[in-house]
Amino acid sequence: MLGPAHAATVMVRDGDTIQVGDVTYHLDGVDAPELDQMCIDDHADPWSCGIDARDRLSKLIAGRAVHCDDLGPDKTFRTRRAGICRVDGDTASLNQQLVREGLAASIEPAMRLHLNDDAAAARADNKGLWKGCFVAPQDFRTGKKDSALLGAACRADRDREIRAILFPEDPAMPPSCSIKGKFAVRARVTGNLGIYHLRGCSSYAGLTRPDRWFCSEDDARAAGFRRAYNCRASRGK
């Protein structure tokens, strides 16, 4: 295990991923909604929960210095390091704060932080995601449309309508996230979930209903997608 990482430049990539200097960390034990993931709030309205989780993580940092314990390669997200990250002046890690506020679920396997008790407390208090209805981020990432519905606002008599919101046929593109991802059986031959298409790909315009949207090639690769073979060479994404 490497020691703590210190850097002045911190960029929040999504609700459980931050870049500290040149190193990108997935927060150990944490699984926040993806940026393109939709949830339902406590008023039964569609909710861009992934965007809100990212914005909350940004507010928790609030421009302060971040220090991450590097736990090694992440077991779930490719191209990421697993980290326990803290902000100057806070006792609890960012990992634990997000789960306690209900804006992220706990996930196993974890390298060191096992946050199931924090997640259970947030669920019991209907905090964050738990006050509405959502699917586990890991189920969303794999397109598991029959996955369990979670949260206080889930209704068995509205199952079809709820899933249509959580897994839309034509998902909206998050701001500045223009890379299209499509689940593909042929991609699994190489151990991937699907294929991503850049604006420079000849197939980009024809893919009118992507399954996922990504903000960078690194995000797409971390999620288990490979670049389409008809794409031009990357230009630093």
Short structural summary:
Helix content is 20%, strand content 24%. The chain is built from six helices and 14 strands. The model has no long low-confidence stretch (mean pLDDT 92).
Outline the low-pLDDT stretches.
none
Radius of gyration: 18 Å
Mean pLDDT: 92
| Percent of sequence in beta strands | 15-25%
Question: What is the string of SSEs from the N terminus onward?
Answer: EEEEEEEHEEHEHHHEEEHE
Shape: globular
Structural category is alpha+beta
Strand order of the largest sheet: 1-8-9-4-3-2
The largest sheet is: 6 strands, mixed
**First-last Cα distance:** 28 Å
Helix content: 10-25%
Number of helices in the DSSP assignment: 6
* Number of beta-strand segments: 14
Task: Set out the fold topology.
Elements: E1 4-7, E2 10-14, E3 17-20, E4 23-27, E5 30-31, E6 39-40, E7 46-47, H1 49-61, E8 66-73, E9 81-87, H2 94-100, E10 105-106, H3 116-124, H4 137-141, H5 159-166, E11 179-183, E12 194-197, E13 212-214, H6 217-222, E14 225-227
Parallel strand pairs: 4-9, 12-14
Antiparallel strand pairs: 1-8, 2-3, 3-4, 5-10, 6-7, 8-9, 11-12, 11-13
What does this structure look like?
The protein has helices at residues 49-61, 94-100, 116-124, 137-141, 159-166, 217-222, and strands at 4-7, 10-14, 17-20, 23-27, 30-31, 39-40, 46-47, 66-73, 81-87, 105-106, 179-183, 194-197, 212-214, 225-227. It is α+β, with helices and mostly antiparallel strands and 237 residues long. The strands form four sheets. The chain has a six-stranded mixed β-sheet with strand order 1-8-9-4-3-2, with helices on one face. Strands 13-11-12-14 form a four-stranded mixed β-sheet. Strand 2 (10-14) and strand 3 (17-20) form a beta hairpin. The longest helix is centred in the first third of the chain and has 13 residues, at 49-61.
